[in-house]
Amino acid sequence: MRKSIKLGLGAALALSVSSAAVMAENVKIAFIDPLSGGFAATGINGLHQFEFAAETLVNAKGGVLDGDMFEILPFDNKISPKESLIQLQVAIDQGARYIVQGNSSGVANALTEAIDKHNRRNPDTQVLFLNYSAVDPALTNEKCNFWHFRFDPHADMKMAALTDMIAENQDVKKVYVIGQDYSFGKAVASAAVSMLAEKRPDIEIVGNELHPIGKVKDFTPYARKVVSSGADAVITGNWGADMLGLGKSILENGFEGPIFTYYAAADGITAAFGESGVDSLYLVAEGDDNPPPKPETQEYIQAFKAKYPDGNMSQTRITNVIQMLAQAINEAGTATDVVQVANALEGMTFKDSLWSTDEMHMRPQDHQLVQDIHIFGHQPVEAPYDMDNSGYGLKVQFTVENASADIATTCEMKRP
Questions:
Q1: Cβ burial, residue 31 (10 Å; 0-12/13-18/19+)
Q2: CATH superfamily ID and name for 156-290+373-400
Q3: Which of 207, 240, 303, 360 qualifies as a cystine partner to 39, CB 3.0-4.6 A?
Q4: Do 9-150+317-353 and 156-290+373-400 come out as alike in CATH topology?
């Protein structure tokens, strides 16, 4: 019988797990996201968070089953759906049975279709898609499938929280909606328009436009249109370099209202905004690390920052992916039969050990994780809970508990 020794986090991290893994099989998890190009900072930071979570929350505690260790395999997709499909096949050929991806819903749509097709044709090498950040609602609606699980609230769930906050602000009379021209950007715009019309029919949408993703070098023309529209608030789903470029240009051109966002933090964004982002930038997300809700959270963040001094604990859902996968594998009694692992994930109630005191639920009808959603404000924050080592970070301004648990889904799940 395997014996385990309970260690503190620091000691556990220092303990090599290589000897324990000699007699065990590694559970290979393929990370397919941008590791080069304009969105590399986002991808690399996400990779580090996955590696740290696997090492700390699973491997340092003895792994899963009889000592199987999680192994994160990085694959650079260059934010391209076509390249992602190439890397998916390479990952499968290398023995990966779990795929994690989050940057770009365009990529996620390509992956989920390819994985569904692969699994129907290749029952001996089936894989699960653990989507940690691609939030196009279609992925858990008309494009849902048994092999896909989403751990991030989708765009409509997040917009429901954002528009709840906007609806309470009577100073907002005019809103400008702007985003990237692909499936996620379109989903954000559609949800913003429809939800504001329902909650605050007096609000006027004074702009609704899309721009090419990752190709705009100077956002000044867009920013000038925002300012000249007389908007009291801006809503954008931009991320990465596009979020930084748009947000900075809007503020530099004199806009003084709130900018409601999905991804305006970390990866150089927080440092670049600095003082200018205070009382301007608001971001919708899950989890809460400022202040840390538990002593374990504080220890985890400090250990992560010690290993990755330039890193950011910016996507708390990544630890949920790793912990819930480990729980599902242990409950299923197998890491290789992904159908059994999926059955364990489906309907799972999960108690987050780090970021929340509430339970989460993986909704069985569409494989969408339901959890609390917060609106954060860009504010001065003490290290190590700041981002980009900048002295600025996120503080909760508004919370929706168990957000959108009853939101409708059009998913018609076909199970193997």
A1: buried
A2: Response regulator (3.40.50.2300)
A3: 240
A4: yes
**What is the chain's Cα-based Rg?**
21
What are the start-end ranges of the H helices in 55-124?
81-93, 105-121
User: What whole-number distance in Å separates Cα of residue 304 and Cα of residue 283?
Assistant: 23
| Identity of the amino acid at 410 | T
* Angle in degrees, 0-180, between the axes of helices 81-93 and 105-121, rounded to the nearest 10: 40
| C-alpha–C-alpha distance, residues 315 and 33, integer Å | 14
| HEC per residue, 205-225 | EEEEEEECCCCCCCCHHHHHH
pTM of the full predicted structure? 0.87
Q: Given this model, what pLDDT does residue 406 score? A: 83
Residue position matching structure tokens 């980009």? 388
Residue 302's alpha-carbon distances to 16, 17, 206, 317, 383, in angstroms, are: 20, 21, 44, 18, 9
Q: Do 147 and 102 contact (CB within 8 A), yes or no?
A: no
- The residues spanned by each domain of the chain are 9-150+317-353, 156-290+373-400
Domain 9-150+317-353 classification at class level: alpha beta
Q: Is 256 helix (H, G, I), strand (E, B) or coil?
A: coil
- pLDDT, greater one: 133 or 2: 133
Residues 273-286, buried b or exposed e (16+ Cβ, 10 A)?
beeebeebbbbbbb
Residue 192: name the closest of 133, 251, 234, 151 by CA. Answer: 234
Q: What is the pLDDT of residues 339-360, one digit of tens each?
A: 999 999 999 999 887 887 778 9
Closest to 132 (Cα-Cα) out of 154, 114, 159 = 154
List the structure tokens of 224. Answer: 């000038």
Non-local CB neighbours of 324 within 8 Å, separated by 6+ positions: 151, 345, 348, 350, 362
Task: Using CA atoms of 8, 14, 19, 21 in order, give the dihedral in degrees to the nearest 10.
Answer: 70
Sheet holding 359-363, edge to edge: 70-76, 27-33, 98-101, 128-131, 148-150, 368-370, 359-363, 349-351
